[in-house]
Design a protein that fits this description.
heterodimer, A: 294 residues, mainly alpha, elongated, B: 231 residues, alpha/beta, Cytidine Deaminase, domain 2, six-stranded mixed beta sheet, three-stranded parallel beta sheet, 8 helices, 42% helix, globular, ER membrane protein complex subunit 2 (chain A), repeat (chain A)
């Protein structure tokens, strides 16, 4: 089989630079990384200098993605030899165990990191993904909330406190700060949308709809956001103050959300008798809300 | 407003909901399957939330869904229950009053129940100790370290008079076979059955979970004797 260097007519420097670019731009083209990285490591290791360690890490993660445990283990062992006490390497060890579905062992590694350094957000995030992988969604959400409290404790606590006392304007402000710090967090978007919805009024409803939509873009399985989108769009469409175009657009959003909701419930209801009840309830509810809208 | 009767199933599920989220404010809806008129008989409850109670969208969603389910199953929403996160605070929050008012639009004599967490916690301690060591149980009794009310259900009832909610006389809450209900609640708590309870919040986190709690209802029925009636 031809090597990467032969196939693409590139030298080792170009391969190294390519890997760096993919790293910096956060590409997840794992198969390519494995191909290029494996060759680079096995044939040009001595030329890479200190870059080799970060390349080992990058290739290891890509190897896990491609189920290449042999390669992942090789990289990991090199890293462990070089950095025996590193938390970063411990996390990689945990990730490999996760890929092998040895979740309890993986958790032990993450717990060890957190014992040493309770603020280590990377380890916390991995623990949350394990819970998600095991289908323990309630626990995952709880851990995520704890993570939010840890990372931005004052802001998040302020937000909860203000909500409890119905100070929605100020609560919204806290969330805006949180969203600026962490724009990829779908929970903040969804909470913000809920606060806006609670404040009420057409402008807030429109904002609420936008943020529910944003939360869905970040996580398309967030049921609260899906329902929220449906409800906010329906209310806007039903308002006498909106133009015909806005009404039409919002009816489209609501219809889309309704389809997604029905589909999610159908999927959930497969095989279990008790969930058929939720499914029927949701179907009927969506239908009844549509009647009042038109 | 006349008497309010609380069934074993409704009480146990409220209790388990409170125990499942000891550090959170929780709330839920009270349902009835008996005909209107006379005493209000709360035959079931639906646990709703354990986070961000004052926010509107999920509460509205839950109310609508429960309403639909009720019409499918010949039940009505007749009230609302809440337990506050802060153990020493048993007053209904503005959001509790809002939801209860909303229910009042549809049902003439809605019931607003606040669960007293101090006594619920006491419950748990008591049942734990009497499981492990009878002596300690007796000591506690003699030591009079507990509130003399422990034998009474840890709930506070409010009724609606002239669009205000006022505290109702404790003696108008009826629980048939109170000792047995209390025993069932403690037993289920001990055996970890409270983790089986699904509230609406948990359902939204994972929609395969059943917020009508059919499995739990069956368990409660199995434990209750026929004499407890009205399950």
């Amino acid at each position: 089989m031809a090597s990467v260097a032969e196939m693409y007519d590139v030298g080792w420097e170009e391969m190294r630079d390519k890997l760096r670019k993919w790293r910096e731009d956060n590409y997840r083209n794992s198969e390519q990384i494995v191909d290029v990285g494996e060759e680079l490591i096995s044939e040009h290791a001595s030329k890479l200098g200190d870059d080799i360690w970060i390349i080992y890490e990058q290739v290891m993660i890509a190897a896990l993605d491609c189920s290449r445990d042999d390669l992942a283990l090789t990289c990991l062992q090199e890293l462990r030899k070089q950095f025996p006490d590193s938390h970063r390497v411990k996390r990689l060890t945990g990730m490999r165990l996760e890929a092998l579905e040895r979740y309890d062992e993986a958790n032990k590694h993450y717990d060890a990191i957190l014992q040493d350094d309770p603020t280590n957000t990377a380890a916390r995030k991995r623990k949350i993904s394990i819970l998600k992988a095991q289908g323990k969604s309630t626990e995952a959400i709880r851990e995520l909330n704890e993570y939010l409290e840890m990372t931005h404790p004052q802001l998040y606590q302020a937000y909860c406190f203000l909500c409890r006392f119905h100070s929605y304007g100020k609560a919204a402000f806290c969330l805006e700060e949180l969203m600026m710090i962490n724009p990829h967090n779908h929970l903040y978007c969804e909470q913000y949308a809920e606060v806006k919805y609670t404040q009420g009024g057409l402008e807030n409803l429109e904002l609420s709809r936008k943020y529910f939509a944003q939360a869905l873009r970040l996580n398309n399985r967030n049921m609260r956001a899906l329902f929220g989108l449906y409800m906010s769009a329906s209310h806007i469409a039903a308002s006498p103050k909106v133009s015909a175009k806005v009404k039409k657009d919002n009816m489209k959003y609501a219809a889309w959300a309704a389809t997604q909701i029905n589909r999610a419930y159908k999927l959930a209801g497969r095989g279990t008798k008790e969930n058929k009840c939720s499914m029927k309830t949701v179907e009927e509810m969506l239908e009844s809300m549509q009647i009042t809208m038109s | 407003m006349g008497e309010v009767e609380l069934s074993c199933r409704a009480y146990v599920k409220m209790y388990l909901h409170t125990c499942l989220f000891p550090r959170c404010s929780i709330n839920g809806l009270l349902l009835s399957s008996s005909p209107t008129g006379g005493a209000v008989c709360v035959t079931d409850c639906v646990p709703l939330l354990h986070s961000h109670l004052p926010l509107a969208p999920i509460t509205q969603l839950a109310l609508t869904q429960v309403d639909v389910w009720c019409s499918q199953t010949q039940q009505r929403i007749v009230g609302y229950y809440q337990a506050n996160a802060c153990v020493s605070d048993n007053n209904p929050t503005p959001c509790a009053l809002k939801v209860a008012d909303k229910i009042a639009e549809q049902f003439d004599n809605p019931v607003l129940l606040m669960v007293r967490k101090t006594e619920v916690k006491l419950f748990y301690r008591l049942s734990l100790t009497c499981w492990f060591n009878l002596d300690i149980f007796l000591l506690l009794l003699d030591g009079s370290k507990m509130s003399p009310d422990y034998r009474v259900p840890p709930i506070v009832l409010y009724e609606r008079k002239d669009s205000r909610w006022i505290l109702k006389d404790k003696h108008t809450i009826m629980l048939r076979q109170w000792e047995e209900t209390r025993a069932i609640a403690s037993q289920m708590m001990e055996s970890g059955d409270h983790t089986l309870l699904v509230d609406f919040d948990s359902h939204l986190d994972d929609i395969t979970k059943d917020w009508t709690n059919q499995k739990l209802n069956t368990k409660i029925e199995e434990l209750a004797s026929p004499a407890n009636g009205n399950i």
